[in-house]
Amino acid sequence: MKKLTKKTNRNLKWIIIFLIPVTVLLIAFFVYPIVYLAFLGFMEWDGISAMSFVGISNYTRTFGDSVFQTSIKNNLIWALSAAFLQIPLALVIALILAREPRGWRFLRTVYFLPNVISLVALAMLWRAMYNPEFGAVNFFLSQLGLEHMTRNWLGELDTALPAVIFSYQVYIGYFMVIILAGTMSIPKTFYEAAMIDGANILQQERYITLPAIRGIIVTAGTLAVAFALRQFETTFLMTAGGPANRTPVMGLYMYRRMAGLRYGQAAATGVLLILLGVVVLSGMQRIFGKSDAIEDAHQ
Amino acid sequence: MRTRKLLSLLLSCLLIASVMPIFGAGAREADPEIVLTWPCIWVGQDSKADMIEKIVNEFNEEHAGEIRVIIEPQPDYDGYEDTIRTRLAAGQAPDIFTFKLSPTTAAYYSGDLLMDFTDDLTQDGWGYTFNQGNINASTIDGETKSLPYEIGFTPIWYNTELFAKAGIDEFPRTMDEFWVAADKLKAIGVVPTSQMTGGTNSWTSMLWFTHLLGSFGGPEVWERAWDDPAYEQAAAILKRLYSDGNTTRDAIGADAGVSGGHYQAGRTAMFINGAWYIGNIRENSPEAYAATKLAPLPQAGDYYGHQVGWLHTNLGAANTDDPARREAVITFLKHLTDPENAKRVSLDAGSLLSIEFDLGPEDEIDPLQQQFIDAGNQAEFLIDHLEASMPVDVVYEFGQAIGAMVLEDRSPAEFVQMLEAVHD
């Protein structure tokens, strides 16, 4: 017993030594910025002059801004699209590829490819594709005799947000790979037994695959929603929040405040973005995962 | 066991050591050569890039072993402004940089982040090499903490070949004539104007709006409140410019590349930009370049013959307590703003600069640049554009307000209200 305690103490010493670097980094680049962000949210600061305490006026001003309200709504639409469009699509593709049809490895690479291409490059590519004068989307519609459906996809009120969100669906490959890895780890014998019992493919997926990868789906969903909530680049590059303030997201709203040298209000927006993330992701965990999703994924 | 322990200890030290440079950044070794970094927007495809690089290289050769200026390429305009803003907010002003002086960026002058050139400009007549109006515009509370460099001057560009094809003999003098000309252009399949709401400032449309505002409100219009009728009148015409095929289908959401691209390709007949665009159009679209003439805006209100002109780019530098470093910065800036070097930049790129220089008979001036100079000389008055006159929030909102006015059919009065709402 004494020997065990001594060994535990020795291990503890090494655990602490090895944890020091990552703890230092975590405090410097995560804890400190969040604390500073919260502090800055109560200040008025142009980035150059001295700060002054303004209480909660940055928050009241932000909440009172209709563009901010639209930004929250858009962030939630992004999150919903991630949860109910991106993940189901990724799941369907993963289930198909898990059956190892001909060329599945090639298709897996193709679906994953957008994730290794710069987000900026892809946003610019989509912007060009959506161009009403020379873009590929209108060109194909015209070729199909659907000229009446051609439009300024990023410049019209009804189509701008859906067009930006649609362009983001090329990133399903990331979630597809996560789900595929989980699906392919299910023992083949389960399916063989099910086939002997007369289960068709849909029944096999319904009663074997989906329950087995439930935790992974929740994890992928959590990641997708988190990515959607911190959305900035695609919106910034494709519409910059337009037309007529229809497509802004909270990240863009925060950026605009910084560009106007209103760092206090930008920080308050950042705090609200973090809170929104906490609420949405906790809600997801409550609804979809009784226990920790990541833990589930590893079970 | 002993080896494992030793290895573990070594790994721990390595891990800790790997993060140390993050905290030790900024420590400089003593070096006799002073190195100045210049995050520079005039790189890559920019028309001034080649000559600026040449001038910097010449300076580095002349001061080898003493001062070296390193250009940090930053080809994206919005990204460049973000970089400068962030570095200033972090208290780490670049050694040398450029910025647009506006009601928002005037905040850069507060504190002691920027080097104050006020005394330096009085020595050796350096201050007199600049246009004095521009020096005054760059002086806030008696302190000149940035040097005027490039002037923005943006008349209406029009394609004379397309005008001729449409049967238009001369550029319209009034807005009534303008709409007649627009109809004639549309009749031959040419879109009358380039417009855009994209980018951070809706550049082309922002300039159209400013021209219109000058015509309705005169030279002092920016000093008036938002309820002045000039704003609404200018907005009404801007709305019409976005309607009835008077601009391209992609104008809502388009950026400066699209707006300029339409003009260069001959799809639009009228466009607005500054002299810095001469190098671009001359190289990429010689036909459009050759056919281009400049004009003031047709008379929309009480005023006619004005131009939109402002201080476009200022040179700033990081303040320093090190006299040698300060001297090095001043030496370089004197080299860069030397009238002879300014002339080289201006003639090569077509840009108009704040630095005054003499042209000799051997100097070949670009014909389009000459038109710019003539237009400037003939201007009844100059008016700053919206970006130079309003806080950045108003500038951002401008494009969104156009979108609302055109797509949601909001009235010009509502357009003005949108701008007023974001103006503190």
Question: Could you describe the 3D structure shown?
Answer:
The complex is a heterodimer of chains A (299) and B (424). Chain A is mainly α and 299 residues long. Helices cover 71% and strands 1% of the residues of chain A. Chain A has helices spanning 2-40, 57-63, 66-98, 104-112, 119-130, 136-143, 160-167, 172-184, 188-196, 201-212, 214-229, 233-238, 250-259, 263-288, 293-297, and strands spanning 43-44, 52-53. In chain A, strand 1 (43-44) and strand 2 (52-53) form a beta hairpin. Chain B has 424 residues and is an alpha/beta fold. Chain B folds into two domains: 34-152 and 310-353, Periplasmic binding protein-like II (D-Maltodextrin-Binding Protein, domain 2, 3-Layer(aba) Sandwich), CATH 3.40.190.10; 153-308 and 375-422, D-Maltodextrin-Binding Protein, domain 2. Chain B has helices spanning 2-24, 49-62, 77-89, 118-122, 132-137, 160-165, 175-187, 203-217, 229-241, 256-264, 278-284, 286-291, 323-336, 339-349, 367-378, 386-389, 392-407, 412-422; strands at residues 34-40, 67-73, 96-99, 139-140, 143-144, 147-153, 156-159, 191-193, 268-272, 292-295, 307-317, 352-353, 382-383. In chain B, strands 3, 6, 11, 12 and 13 form a five-stranded mixed sheet that branches. Chain B has a four-stranded mixed sheet with strand order 8-9-7-10. A two-stranded parallel sheet of chain B has the order 1-2. In chain B, 46% of the residues are buried. Chain A binds chain B through residues 14, 17-18, 20-21, 24-25, 28, 46-49, 131-133, 152, 154-157, 160, 239-246, 256, 258-261, 263, and chain B through 8, 12, 15-16, 18-19, 22, 81-82, 85, 88-89, 104, 107-108, 110-111, 113, 197-200, 248-254, 258, 391-393, 396, 399-401, 403-404, 407-408.
